[in-house]
């Protein structure tokens, strides 16, 4: 068996895609099915005249299908994986030409990256000048945007936060759009968050709004004070403002922190915002005791690609984007995938210890978010319609409201109502449980 | 006002309405403002007071996050649930995964078989599949949901307290329910008690009998009637002798109750009642020469019922009301020309059918044929000949769960009312009924049958060939609903034949519909059924 059903579910771009894939996972729906050591493939009838050719590189976990779907993997890819998930044994067969070509092409690409064109001094100088020009132009735009947002925040402070619940949604949306125009997408995101607060909840909205405004204010002040900041801090601020981090660059950046470890895939979360799907995958290095957050993005024009499966242990190297607090990273190399944990991770034994750890991280990066932690011996309880995680000292931490009921139920089924060691993402006032550790296994919820 | 509240107040009201008084701020924030004052002077533009407030909010937010204390819950008792039964092994769970993948129209029946199998094996569904099973169980019947709540184990039952709890709601049938529960709860409680001990359940019912409403009394008697036992005898006798014996009853509700009691006593062969009934009916049984050429040659004689055309001492409303709880008047003069026929019809509905075979000295099939076909028992309504006792016989078969009677009726008659006997008929009788009356596409007939009533090999083949003929002549289009029915009952060994004849139809206009809606669901269903059987 190549993958389990829950692992396949974890890489489905949408629950509906998995459901559709499940329908196609009946062996007789496939006209052709085959498997070799490095790939599985199949042909399935679609709406067109010719069948779709679906193939999976099982070593690198890459997918290809001739169907026109923009989802990745598409329902045919998921269905094919599910077909093989049920098969105890299926003897290997010779790869057909279309599979062999694809695999050879893939392997060739990754083993022999395209040699860079030779660059003359003239070309380099030209390119540097163009880069500098672009940078200067962007700095002007961002500075203008920062000034505009500063005034906007000051206006809020002048008239008071009590006015916020009366503001129309366009009040926030327009300012967010202005920030996008100013090439400060990070700032736009903070403004959108401010607009999304549930202002009808009198007990919560002030705290949430005040915290977001505080973080924007701190970011704007830091930007204005950037000359006094260290290069690493400056980089962090730029990223928060909206400068992109290049995955391609990080792949070859020899100065970046890179850690070889066995990385447990703690959990995967998809969040859809307008047309963009943000895919977060949290990793934990068993030996290094480090966490990493891998981000992927999908849009109607660029499919979301995530090849990591929850519960798996990836043996490989994770490289971190430079930051004052290294959190976001990429899997630079991967040599093996395991499904068992051989070493007990390091857990916090109570919430107090976890929160103190978070404060230490927050001191480094006051905007830190989506940071995972491990905590031992907690129990899931429900009080007044709210789920909590209770530690060994009876202290309780609320579970984020959007934590699905199904996940809570899975927790109860796996834990039997007792204490378990878990991975959570801490989000300020609440946590999102990711999964449960038991003996040599990790089970994502 | 505390320092913290002050910071919040000015943030809410804004600096236009409240001037910032730094002295009122928490000391830590004051210190921070002082320490960073030079930065503000250099960089700040625009509205200094507003900027200052933003800084205050920033510090305040930072400190208040750190100052937040965790809530403690001291009164929560942790209950670790450990299962004692083993979990299903992979081959069993693989079948479940296969069932999940099927289209809905074949899934539910296969799922029912699978959960029964898991229950028989005394195993539990593995934790990662419990929620899927609970979700799918919502579409199943109450009994299946009950089985599901058993095979998901104690942990699964804990989950049902939060998840899909309305769909899996189990009435806690404690003794209090009998006194305080609603109608459904009390009926469920009585049924549960009957399953434990019929006599004790009836003792309980007897205590409250007089205070029960008429409709409730009838409801409890209906429950009793489904699985009537000898142990019910004393209860029924007591009710009958105390209130109904020899009494003339006019009220409709009370009359229904009396008829029900008498009918059940008759099934238990209650001597005082049945001797009066037998002797009364016996007077009207006469021997006559059998009709038909052979019978005439053999000089065969047979018993028949000869009723008077007018009321007499036995066939009169007053007497039969006192004896059995029948209507005093003929309530259907359109169908029953003579009053005695009306009451004979009531007898046929109320008495165990064996009494007629005994009185007439004929087999069950012969009696059924006699009642349904004899011209004396036919009436013309709107130009059509109607067998006047058919409805009563159907009612009797259903009420007494009499499979032989259902078979015998289905052998003689066919109409929508006889179709109601489909769930009761034996498999050979059902198949004969469908074939003889050309009811192969009558979906409701098939759907009424239990999923265990698998078609015989010959019937499965007959269905295939007949349906193919209908497809060819355009009288039938293979649809999903029909595929569901066939997948549910089709005989496994007939699949080879089905595949073979299907292949021969490749290329026809309706072949794709047949393939998708009929052939594939049957194939999948048979394969899974076989896998379930081998578990």
- The tally of structural domains of chain B comes to 4
Total individual domains of chain A: 4
Largest sheet of chain B: 2 strands, antiparallel
Instruction: Report the order of strands and helices of chain A.
Output: HHEEEEHHHHHHHHEEEEEHEEEHEEE
Report the uncertain regions of chain A. Answer: none
Structure description:
The complex is a heterodimer of chains A (445) and B (535). Chain A has 445 residues and is of the alpha+beta class. Chain A has four domains: 5-111, no CATH class; 128-241, no CATH class; 247-338, no CATH class; 351-444, OB fold (Dihydrolipoamide Acetyltransferase, E2P), CATH 2.40.50. Helix content of chain A is 38%, strand content 26%. Chain A contains twelve helices and 15 strands. The longest helix of chain A is centred in the first third of the chain and has 39 residues, at 121-159. The radius of gyration of chain A is 24 Å and the shape is globular. With 535 residues, chain B is mainly alpha-helical. Chain B is 61% helix and 4% strand. Chain B has helices at 3-13, 27-35, 37-43, 48-67, 90-101, 104-120, 127-137, 142-151, 153-159, 175-180, 183-196, 198-208, 214-226, 233-244, 252-267, 271-282, 293-297, 317-324, 339-350, 354-360, 364-373, 390-399, 403-412, 416-419, 427-436, 443-447, 457-472, 480-489, 495-504, 511-534, and strands at 71-72, 285-289, 301-305, 378-381, 384-387. In chain B, helix 6 crosses helix 8 (142-151), helix 23 runs parallel beside helix 25 and helix 29 (495-504) runs antiparallel to helix 30. The longest helix of chain B has 24 residues, at 511-534. In chain B, 31% of the residues are buried. The mean pLDDT of chain B is 88. Classes of the chains: A alpha+beta (445), B mainly alpha (535).
Give a quick rundown of the structure.
The complex is a heterodimer of chains A (445) and B (535). In chain A, 38% of the residues lie in helices and 26% in strands. Chain A has 445 residues and is of the alpha+beta class.
């Amino acid at each position: 068996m190549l993958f389990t059903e829950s692992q396949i579910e974890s890489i489905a771009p949408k629950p509906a895609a998995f459901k559709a894939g499940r329908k196609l996972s009946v062996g007789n729906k496939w006209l052709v099915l085959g498997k070799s050591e490095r790939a599985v493939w199949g042909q399935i009838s679609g709406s067109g005249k010719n069948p779709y050719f679906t193939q999976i590189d099982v070593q690198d976990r890459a997918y290809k299908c001739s169907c026109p779907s923009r989802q990745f993997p598409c329902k045919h890819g998921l269905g094919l994986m599910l077909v093989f998930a049920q098969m105890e044994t299926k003897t290997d067969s010779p790869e057909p030409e279309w599979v062999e070509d694809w695999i050879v092409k893939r392997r060739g690409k990754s083993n022999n990256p395209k040699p860079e064109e030779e660059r003359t001094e003239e070309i380099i100088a030209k390119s540097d000048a163009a880069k500098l020009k672009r940078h200067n132009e962007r700095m002007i735009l961002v500075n203008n945007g920062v000034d505009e947002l500063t005034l906007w925040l000051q206006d809020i402070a002048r008239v008071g936060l009590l006015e916020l619940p009366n503001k129309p949604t366009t009040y926030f949306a327009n300012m967010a759009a202005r920030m996008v125009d100013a090439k400060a997408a990070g700032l736009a995101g903070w403004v959108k968050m401010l607009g999304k607060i549930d202002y009808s909840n009198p007990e919560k909205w002030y705290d949430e709004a005040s915290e977001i405004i505080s973080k924007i204010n701190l970011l704007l002040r830091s930007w204005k004070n950037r000359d006094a900041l260290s290069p690493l801090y400056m980089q962090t601020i730029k990223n928060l403002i909206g400068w992109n981090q290049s995955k391609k660059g990080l792949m070859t950046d020899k100065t970046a922190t890179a850690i070889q470890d066995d990385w447990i895939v703690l959990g995967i979360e998809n969040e859809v915002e307008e047309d963009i799907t943000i895919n977060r995958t949290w990793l934990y290095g068993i030996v290094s005791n480090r966490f990493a957050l891998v981000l992927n993005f999908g849009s109607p024009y660029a499919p979301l690609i995530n090849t990591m499966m929850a519960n798996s242990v990836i043996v490989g190297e994770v490289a971190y984007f430079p930051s004052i607090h290294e959190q976001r990273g990429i899997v630079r190399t991967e040599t093996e995938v395991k499904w068992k944990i051989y070493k007990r991770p390091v857990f916090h034994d109570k919430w107090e210890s976890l929160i103190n750890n978070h404060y230490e991280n927050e001191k480094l990066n006051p905007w830190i978010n989506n940071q995972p932690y491990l905590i031992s011996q907690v129990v899931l309880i429900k009080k007044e319609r709210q789920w909590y995680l209770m530690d060994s000292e009876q202290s309780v931490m609320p579970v984020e409201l959007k934590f699905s009921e199904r996940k809570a139920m899975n927790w109860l089924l796996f834990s039997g109502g007792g204490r378990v060691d878990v991975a959570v993402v801490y989000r300020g006032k609440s946590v999102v449980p990711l999964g449960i550790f038991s003996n040599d296994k990790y089970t994502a919820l | 006002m505390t320092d913290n509240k002050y910071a919040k107040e000015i943030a809410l009201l804004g600096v236009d309405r409240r001037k910032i008084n730094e002295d009122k701020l928490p000391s830590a924030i004051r210190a921070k403002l002082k320490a960073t004052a030079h930065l503000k002077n250099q960089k700040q533009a625009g509205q200094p007071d507003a900027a200052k407030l933003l800084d205050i909010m920033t510090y305040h937010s930072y400190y208040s996050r750190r100052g937040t204390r965790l809530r403690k819950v001291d009164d929560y008792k942790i209950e670790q649930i450990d299962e004692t039964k083993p979990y299903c092994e992979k081959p069993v769970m693989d079948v479940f995964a296969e069932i999940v993948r099927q289209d809905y129209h074949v899934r539910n029946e296969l799922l029912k078989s699978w959960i029964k199998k898991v229950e028989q094996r005394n195993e539990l569904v593995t934790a990662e599949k419990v929620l899927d099973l609970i979700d799918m169980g919502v579409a199943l019947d109450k009994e299946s949901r009950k089985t599901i709540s058993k095979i998901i184990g104690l942990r699964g039952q804990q989950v049902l307290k939060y998840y899909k709890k309305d769909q899996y709601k189990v009435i806690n049938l404690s003794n209090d329910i009998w006194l305080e529960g609603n109608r459904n709860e009390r009926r469920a409680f009585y049924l549960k008690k009957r399953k434990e001990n019929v006599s004790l359940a009836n003792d309980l019912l007897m205590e409250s009998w007089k205070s029960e409403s008429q409709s409730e009394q009838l409801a409890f008697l209906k429950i009793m009637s489904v699985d009537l036992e000898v142990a019910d005898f004393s209860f029924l006798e007591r009710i009958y002798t105390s209130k109904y014996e020899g009494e003339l009853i006019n009220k409709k509700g009370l009359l229904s109750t009396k008829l029900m009691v008498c009918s059940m006593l008759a099934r238990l062969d209650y001597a005082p009642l049945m001797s009066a009934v037998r002797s009364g009916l016996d007077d009207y049984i006469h021997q006559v020469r059998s009709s038909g050429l052979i019978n005439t040659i053999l000089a065969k004689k047979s018993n028949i019922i000869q009723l008077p055309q007018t009321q007499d001492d036995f066939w009169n409303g007053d007497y039969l009301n006192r004896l059995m709880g029948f209507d005093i008047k003929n309530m259907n003069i359109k169908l029953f020309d003579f009053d005695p026929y009306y009451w004979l019809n009531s007898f046929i509905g109320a008495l165990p059918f064996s009494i007629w075979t005994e009185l007439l000295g004929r087999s069950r099939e012969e009696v059924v044929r006699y009642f349904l076909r004899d011209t004396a028992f036919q009436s013309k309504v709107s130009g059509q000949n109607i067998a006047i006792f058919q409805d009563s016989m159907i009612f009797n078969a259903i009420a007494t769960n009499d499979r032989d009677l259902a078979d015998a009726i289905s052998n003689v008659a066919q109409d929508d009312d006889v179709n109601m006997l489909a769930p009761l008929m034996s498999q050979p009788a059902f198949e004969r009924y469908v074939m003889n009356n050309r009811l192969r596409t009558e979906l409701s007939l098939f759907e009424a049958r239990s999923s265990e009533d698998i078609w015989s090999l010959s019937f499965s083949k007959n269905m295939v060939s007949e349906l193919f003929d209908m497809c060819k002549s355009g009288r039938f289009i293979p649809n999903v609903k029909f595929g569901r029915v066939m997948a549910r009952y089709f005989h496994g060994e007939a699949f080879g034949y089905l595949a073979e004849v299907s292949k021969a139809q490749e290329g026809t206009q309706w072949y794709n519909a047949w393939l998708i809606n009929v052939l594939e669901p049957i194939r999948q269903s048979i394969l899974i059924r076989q896998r379930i059987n081998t578990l």
